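Hi! If you just cloned this repository, the fastest way to understand the data is to look at a raw example. We've pasted two of them here, unedited. The first protein comes first, obviously.
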Amino acid sequence: MIMEGKVGIVMGMANRFSIAHGIGKSLKQNGATSVFTAQTDTFKAKIDDIALELGGMESVLCDVSKDGSICEAFEKISRNLGRPIDFVVHSIAYSDKNELSGKYYDTTRENFLNTMNISCYSLTEICRCIRPFMSDNGSIVTLSYYGSEKVVPNYNVMALAKSALETSVMYLAKDLGEYGIRVNSISSGPIKTLAASGIGDFSKILDYDANRSPLKRNVTQKDVADACVFLLSDMSSGITGENIHVDCGCSNIGVSF
């Protein structure tokens, strides 16, 4: 129960296959209370039952692509909880699936900017908006992917967004360190999620990673969730500005195909 008594926000759950769902489940098992956010009314309707199951309350609308939405959501959550926020999980990424195949140089300007805005800049705004409501030993964790370091076919502009996200983590860790707030990222191996379904030939990526992994398997939702809970807990109080690989050892074996 390493999260007993802590309350926080989990952003980016789309369904029970989401990494954010696994994180919310592990948080509950370890004693935390979580509030989930939803990007749209459609997603809110889909996840409210899960939010009630894992956190005891309905999800809160928060469209990270719109100015003011993040701060408004955090103010509402803090007011409802009546106490400081201990943690935030940023599990948000988006890119037009039609551009996650073929050549990277075919990425349109519109999709490039939209991908960066939702997948990367949203974390910066989250950190700015949550600071006044966060406890002195708060922790923020975001989700990245190995495609930020090596070329992964069909990951394209998402790779740049994840690379920028990991660099943002370092700068945000510096900015928030004086307030006792830690910021880290987890670079997960490939997992079957709604977001991953938009990547061309994703099943081949799963097979490739499983075959070259020292553990001879793909990373699981639970693997990532438990690592995330550790980074959110006081047990990782000396870790900030880091990108932690949870990929069954794939990042240490060879290069991407």
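Ok, and the second one:
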Amino acid sequence: MKEIIVRENEAGQRMDKLLSKYLKEAPKSFIYKMLRKKNITLDGKKASGNEILKTGNSIRFYLSDETYEKFAGPQDSAKQLLPSGVKPLKAAEILYEDEHIILMNKPAGWLSQKAEPKDVSMNERMLAYLVGSGKITEAELSTFHPSVCNRLDRNTSGILIGGKSLAGLQEMSRMLKDRSLHKYYQCIVKGKITEAQRISGYLSKDETTNKVRVTKEPGKDAKKIVTEYRPLAYCKEGTLLEILLVTGRTHQIRAHLASIGHPILGDPKYGDAKTNQRILQNHRIRHQTLHAARVELPVIDGKLGYLSGKCFEAPLPETFARITSEK
């Protein structure tokens, strides 16, 4: 017989979901069969698998060691999750941290999450920091992986939200999905914009080029987009804008602003080639000047209630200052 005691980062999920993490190689039919036959129990009683677990619950496996090990398979560890040589987050890259969440200031050039198995992203750097500082243990990693909750394009800088606990991951992911968490960006665009605006359109994606197209009228597979912006300052090259992302689509800010004649400076996909060349020569910038600058949290119930109404900001990168200082 093997017994596990549900840890805090395992609580709050269905029992069958946790069992699938402990018995990764087992088909669901086997897990449900063992539950029906009381070969797997919850607090000494028969369970169906749809119970929501609480910290301290006892799950017992009345299976032979050979059967358990066969279906458990290799358990995740820091060595498996982190490629060798991953550099952990620097203190200056951590904007805020508590037991449930961590907010990071992603530099331009880093992936939010890896696209290929060999990639090293901010997600791996966050894990390296948490493991290295003892904030998550090898045992916890076997059934729970802290993770980045939102994504930024590789060359967009700014706030990344990470869930350190299951409650933090679930709650921040929920707010991002229902858009109750407001995300504000800053960018420098070509031309002078004098008034705040709320603009809408329709966005469609070309998978072959990984580019999107914005139109005023709906089309096949096009999705409605809404973007709000207001000017903050003016410089020789254009306008510093604050953007509220009302909807969140691939490359929405970059393509939407380009569609109204105000592309983001330095943007290689949607920008103006002549302007980008000048920005490269004068300021050594070869990527979009787009920064996730601020997040505002709504009223929150439950474990993360202490974060209700909080606002967090990421300072602008030095590249912005180089451009906006020229009047």
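That's it. A detail worth noticing about the second one: The radius of gyration is 24 Å.
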